Amino acid sequence: MPYISEFINTTIQDSSEKNIGKLKDVLIRPRAGTYAGLGYILVKNKKYKKDFFIPFEQVENLSNKEITLKNVFSESNIEHTVPPEHIFLIKDVLDQQIVDMGGARVVRVNDLKLGVFEGSMSVLGIDISFKGLLRRLGLTFIDFFKMMPSNLIDWRQAHPIKGALRLDTVSQNLTKLHPADLANIIEDLNIKQGGQLVTSLDEREAAKVLEEMDPHLKKILIKHMGPEKVGKIIERMSVDEAVDVIKTLSKDEARHFLSFLQEGKSKTVQKLLSHPNDTAGGLMTTDFVRVTPDWTVGDTIDEIRKISPSLRSLLYVYVTNKRDIFQGTVSLRRLLLAQSHQKISSIMKKTRATGNLRVHNKINEITTTMTKYNLYSAAVLDKKKRLVGIVTIDDIMRRIRPNA
Amino acid sequence: MLKTKSILKKLAFIMAVVGPGIIAANADNDAGGITTYSIAGAHFGVKMLWVLFLITISLAVTQEMGVRIGVITRQGLGGIIRENFGIKWTAFAMVAMLVANLGTITAEFAGVAAAFSIFGISKFIVVPLAALAVWFILLKGTFRTTQKIFLVFSAFYIVYIINGFIIHPDFGEAITSLVKPTIEWTTPFLLTMIALIGTTITPWGQFFIQSYVVDKGLDIKHYKTEKAEVYVGAFITDIVSFFIIISTAAVLYKHGIRITDAKDAAMALRPLAGNLAQLLFAFGLFSASMLGAFILPTATAYALCEAFGWESGFNTTWKTGRTFYSIILFTIIVPALIVLLPKISLIKIMILSQDVNGILLPFILIFVMKIINDKRIMGEHVNKPIGNIIAWATIYGIIGATVVLVVTSLLGYN
A362, B12, B164, B310: which is deepest, by most CB within 10 A? Predict the structure, then answer.
């Protein structure tokens, strides 16, 4: 099966065996989830000032010796305008970077494999192998034992990032990926492309992706995108992540970014900002479910249904009295097993038995407490034993393994 | 109050971008650099200062172009070459860079060996140890800290400046030589001259400054500060080079001493350090060499991986980053082995590798020129005429010198 590099500069003849030029590029109209049939060929001929397009249906035979057309070529209907929604395979795809969704990474295109799919010549795969490089360089003889592996990426898994097909249309497919994988891809792209990709995602998705990114690159990306765009994304982040983002900025920039947040969120973020990074206060989030002991299980479950979309995770319901003093926790398991008319006070685990954190606790104190009491998330109290936030296990893991 | 605040703000902004220009410039004074400047002074006195003066301007201009391309495209040089010149030119540029860098890394290991040879410690002990140290520190990820340490160490060059004042050189003569071209049509002179250019403006420096700017996420709004930093960096490096040359000119050239090993070069510091000169020189040469030995294999691997699309970075696993790690290993082992060849002259390695750099430099610079004058890539930030004139003059200057070198050595003018 042929590769596209074999056809570059191949002579094109029409059905009367007249030379009409050389192949300069091939155009396709990519569609998500399927192989793209070749749409047009771009022909270069010194006789005409501009290169021109011929629809691929007119191609009779495609080989690396010559390309022949079905009809007699007539100069009168030469087409110079770029067909809409098409991309250039050689200019925009070959040698450029593409997103490999299967591997959640960014790779460089060494060659493109062509083949027949449902009766029409299409791009089937992307060659990213060393063998592909050698073929392009005319050095295939180096692989004389034919030992080198081919490494093809299925075209349906691949997304070009340059040219007419812009990232915003691509991103609909990318959202199928896990945010962590998407974050990896963005880390591989250059900051411009990465910024475009993040902007093209919906804000909730973008927030998740940013949370997963490497801190150093995240900082650069955020500065590149600017407060206006990032403000909307931070709005959708959990409070502790928003704080993390703001913390990477200088004071002036932070103030600027904060001004793009809604007032309530901005205030909570500012409050959290006052705690040092590596303490419970700095790690905690204020997104959790809080009830008082006199609530019933039914009320609580209703409340959870209502606010759950704004929470990243939910493992316990936290109980405080009217003055915010921490009383205890109720696990989801207990909630599920209880009758809906039961009072929270009757099923909650009291403070003494739960273990909790203080805002100034250092990371090793936090891990000790959480390990000792087997907690996936722990309550954080201030000096007056008021509940101010919770620390969840994923925040701790991120702190321990920042580059994962 | 308000005013000091705004000054502080400005200062903070400047501190944030300070780095690439100064680091790249400082790393220019590596083993190859220190040797080449010493030889230029010891063998030819102040005759080559005018070349130094001209290439300081060239260095500033070419580094600034690297910064500008980085800021606008947000991509390394390898990637841009691949995306705009196709695979064959990319292969050509990358081979040129690889050869030049292998030469420079060889010079770094030769520098380590030369530094310890002063104390009579064999290169067969030192070089393998240094190679191992580089490999493990790169893998263990303490690269940034290590880089900083050696960068601080390389501040040792200040001693050359102090030394330069102590020996009371003829500053009048030196200043005249800066602007008055003198040339000898002999192979040694031309070889040293090309090495002088090749150690100051380097292919790797061009790749390095650009990826540094990209990694740091510098924006067009940082451009002015960064430009200033690059200019300052070029000036500082060449001030040091200037003082190395006048020191060796005054101490060695005047007495007809030629440099055949590191001990001879160290003598230039005697007026300042007396008997400690050798220790001081060895320390400086060692740290400068190690700084280069850390930066270069990594920079080479990143550039190659970017151009050919292999996965790179120290956070990749052995399996996915196999090519990346292989390149680093290759660029450490091969140069170390070359240095370990018995009977090879360390000084010759250090200066000839800089010639290789000088001869290959024009090829890389031509790519840079093509890119920076391409409106599709650079938009409104294409080169101004003055930048083009200086850069092309540099390119043609080196090509001219190389051609003359080949002709004179063929005709046998030694």
Answer: B164
